[in-house]
Amino acid sequence: MSEIDTRKRVDLDDEARIDLLRTMQRIRAFESRVQTLFADGELPGFVHLYIGEEAIAAGVCGALEESDYITSTHRGHGHCIAKGHEFDRMMAELYGKETGYCGGKGGSMHIASPKLGNLGANGIVGAGVPIGVGAALSSQLRGSGQVAASFFGDGATAQGAFHEAMNLSALWDLPFVGVVENNQYGEMSALEEQQAVTDLSERATSYGVPGIDVDGMDVEDVYAATTAAIEAARAGDGPSLLVCDTYRFEGHHEGDTEFYRDDDEINEWRRRDPLKTYPERLIEEGVLTNAEWNDIVDEIDAELEAAIEFARESDYPEPESAYENLYAEEV
Amino acid sequence: MAEAATGTESITVREAIRETLSEELGRDERVFVQGIDVASRGGTFGLLEGLGEEYPERVRNTPISEVAIVGSGLGAAMTGMRPVVEVMYSGFLGVPMDQILNQVAKLRYMTDGNVDIPLTIRTQNTSGFNAAAQHSQALHQLLMAIPGIKVVCVSTPADAKGLLRAAIRHDDPVIVFEHAGVYNREGEVPVGEYEHRIGEAGIEREGEDVTVVATQVQLWNALEAAERLAEEDVSVEVVSPRTLDPLDVETIAGSVRKTGRCVVVDETPLCGGSQSELATVITEEAFFDLDFPVQRLGVDDVPTPFSPPLEEEIYPDTDDIVTTVRQLA
């Protein structure tokens, strides 16, 4: 097992720190508007919000290169935004419009843009992990130096796909980073009701890879741990498992009555809200002024409102397009 | 079918598979092969023997992890490689079924065509080996029911070479069903870079009176039945669908329009079997030329039992085909 010094200081200049904050705010703003649009009945289907977990997507994708790969989950809007997807085409996809990233064929749970290195948000828990490992295998075989990171929840660590994929990635020293977003609940049941071993980083021991505990509410901690894992992966030292402790501020999906948890617990975690603590920290440390922060928020809101307009005004796909793009080669 | 070189050679299905994989590995660095024991003993039937020494980095032994075998193949296919992954028996397809059903088959469509998935999944149906229920069955009918993955069945050495090559070079996912019962069958195969186009059926024997549509072991039984029936002056046309999804409706129905009588024989169970889809399509396309309803032969909806006389009981054989054709002729 390679040793990874996760607490190695990572030099983040002011601009980089502001970028991390901006990415988190982009996710928070997008998800908050999706929440109201869904409540207003504007969005078909159902949505799973990433509110509360922004530091993980921002920190991981901030450390990845544009050419690196990710796989995402049903709670994937945050990963897509952090990997460089634009608001307008994402929003259009949520509306089921032809201008969406998937032409309206994917929807909230399946936004993907292979061109941006996103091999897909995925509606099947744990299914993206072997796909991410395959992208890492491809990178190794091609000698391309790319890394693949798979996001998945604590629930996915009970899936066979996770275990098979981690074992294979370790066996072949693949340039892979497994990112567990431990938001304490799998669907509507708590971690300890689902996992025999609740210290999820211990799972890494089974595969002989570093298991790194990360404060998933601290974007710089996520960034530092990911940077170390990526360096090891690119150096040929194989995969790592990052276990990011975090919390889902909203329900499993919109409309979840949240019968399984109480307000005290939610409020306790809200004190660690990265969109509260990180701007405060940057302002306190003189990286950013209050006014500059407000400008960032306003700027993102304006872009978001324009994206909503774009989605509303876009056309639905032609019904016949349901028969298009199943195959590359029609026979 | 496209023939790039002239002349033929007589080889077995087994040799054709090994030769084709070796040629494709040599031709294209994006091709790699992974599966259980494929590099060391050439897979469970020793088909790929020696291939691991020829291409040590690109012929890879995997753990017994079918989800990871298929899933990592998919991830590699989405990112510039052309993987050939092996699932040892078709009965093991249940293990990686989510990857096949929800990932391999759907990711191109769900991204509206933003990614190609040039993935080949090799597996094999089995019968006649007394391997019992979990290791013996035909399962291509399950895959035919999933839009987004193309399904081919290898019956002859020419199929083995032509269909496998076509699958590897194809930009969509293709599952290649081989059959342990035909691995040692020998036949003429065009030399050179020879392909059976995906989606094209083949007329394996021409005839006038009755069409028999058959795959794999049953194709050989059908050819034998045709030989016997010729002695009784019954002329049988034998059609091999080769690609089960999408079906070459034109070739298959075209034969039935000519003969007016049809027997479909396959090793899938009759309820929801491939025979049902074939019979339906043939009936829709050739209804007014049919003198009789399309007849189906298959496994009568039981798992494959172990004991030799029990296994023999449930599978169609040459006698069954002869008897059924006689009833129509």
Supply the key terms:
heterodimer, A: 331 residues, alpha/beta, two-stranded antiparallel ribbon, 11 helices, 43% helix, 9% strand, B: 329 residues, seven-stranded mixed β-sheet, five-stranded mixed β-sheet, 14 strands, globular
In summary, what is this structure?
The complex is a heterodimer of chains A (331) and B (329). Chain A is of the alpha/beta class and 331 residues long. Chain A is 43% helix and 9% strand.
- Beta strands of chain B, count: 14
Largest beta sheet: strand ordering of chain B: 3-2-4-5-7-6-12
* Number of separate helices of chain B: 12
Q: Can you give the helix content of chain B as a percent range?
A: 25-40%
How helical, in percent, are the residues of chain A? 40-55%
The H/E string of chain A reads: HHEHHHEHEEEHEHEHHH
Q: Flag low-confidence runs of chain B.
A: none
Summarize the main sheet of chain B.
Answer: 7 strands, mixed
C-alpha termini separation of chain B: 31 Å
Radius of gyration of chain B: 19 Å
Helical run tally of chain A:
11
Indicate the structural class of chain B: alpha/beta
Beta-strand percent range of chain B: 15-25%
Structural class of chain A: alpha/beta
**Low-confidence parts of chain A, pLDDT < 50 over ≥5 residues?**
none
